[in-house]
Amino acid sequence: MFMQMKDVRYVQYSPVWFQEKVDDITRYLKLSSEFGCGEEGARIFENFKEDILKRISEFESLVLAQKDAEEPDDLEGIRRLRPAGPRKMTGEIRADYMERLRGAFYGRMAGCTLGAALEFNPIATMKAWAEYFSEPFPPVDYWSHIKEPMSPHYITGRKIDLTKDHMDAVPPDDDTIYTLLGLLTMEEYGMDFTQEDMAAVWKKYLPIEDERGSRGCYWGERNMMLNFQKGMKLPEAGIAGNPNLQNIAGWTRADSYGYVCPGWPEKAAELAYRDCSINHRRNGVYGAMFMAASISAAFIVDDPIEAVKIGLTEIPQNCLFAEGIRWALDTQVTNYQDAADKTWKVYGGMFNGSALTNAIHVVMGLAIGGKNFTKTIGETIAMSGDNDCTGATAGSILGAVIGKEAIPENWTKPFNGRMHIYLKEHPEYLNIDEVCGRFEKLAHQFMK
Q1: Do the bridges between strand 152-153 and strand 157-158 make them parallel or antiparallel, or are there none, so unpaired?
Q2: Given this model, what pLDDT does residue 2 score?
Q3: Are 430 and 419 within 8 A, CB to CB?
């Protein structure tokens, strides 16, 4: 099938060379002190810092000045470029909604927990890790061992919490916290929340880090929170100094909006737009809209790939993100290695945490796994990348299609019906069924 590709020219550079030169600067700075030339070394280093900040500013200005008629940032512009779609698939909450919601929520928690143990590890590293402990790869259960098990993990946890014999709840993770922040925003401000409302919720509940330096958020989200601390207001706080405008974090926040708009993909995408565009642009935002719409549709359809195709109808037809998802749907893959190899052959110039490449992993994982939950999240996280995010979203979409009862118990029972969190003004644990009940209450309010 012929498919027109957007003209994306990647700048070629060597990350290994770049990292070596950063290391050289650090070592020369220390060496200059050892040789007794500390003041002059400090002067050179200050000049280096000024130059780096200048280049970052130049890149930021360059990126923000770029315009593409097929990739608008405003909601109305986005909607004008959508293909035909169902927009709203039902006018009522289906009788099986709560079963599907619990499937989506537990599926998200399970996929996130599985991927978080070896997040961003290369395929070869994950495979060798599994072989060393005589475990299958892709995994069919939570990992039995983890690197640096007693190290802190997201403020209130430890890395060992991610292993099956030490798990007593959903372990804390930023990607599960984002789902709760969306819930809190809608509970406090309703469906018509503004970005200022959302910022207020984040500043009220989300800690940046604890006294040990264990972080509560990363990348563009951390950057935005630090900008808030400096007194910046929106929209500057979300964009200033943020090279993550098209990264994955925006769509890791999208599930909440699909959960409260079951069968209403247009509204789910609109809510995700409002959320994500606080600190993303273009394809970063389209990713969030796509995922929210796909999850919304998953509550109605009986095939996860059908949900994905409906998700595509809520973003610009010819944007880079839509092109990539169509490519993923048209590309036959047999397993995680095949999927990863084909993805990076086409999109090799992108950051490993990009919205698009990770979304491609989700779509390919759903295609490989079918309705088999274990195979779906196992193959998805085995592709590497930001695989706690990809595992979570693949689990959420499939969980909404098949329901909680179809998820094998080894993925849900270790949670003991609760999730471990680190939000301010909240207890250390939340009951999962109570959280799902709060989403259900909002869905009934919003779907009237």
Answers
A1: antiparallel
A2: 37
A3: yes
Q: At residue 156, what is the residue type?
A: T
Dist. CA 262–CA 268, nearest whole Å: 8
Dist CA 119 CA 383 (whole Å): 11
Are the CB atoms for 302 and 401 separated by under 8 Å? yes
Angle at 90 between CA 251 and CA 389, to 5 degrees: 15
- C-alpha closest to that of 355 among 249, 265, 239, 223: 249
Provide the H-helix boundaries in 117-159.
123-132
Q: What is the DSSP secondary-structure string of 310-372?
A: HHGGGS-TTSHHHHHHHHHHHS---SHHHHHHHHHHHHTTS-TTBHHHHHHHHHHHHHHHTT-
Tokens read off for 88: 């709203």
- Residue 179, strand partner residues: none
Give the confidence band of 3 by pLDDT, cuts at 50, 70, 90.
Answer: very low
Q: What is the pTM of this model?
A: 0.95
d(CA 43, CA 58): 23
Interval 293-317: pLDDT, tens: 999 999 999 999 999 999 999 999 9
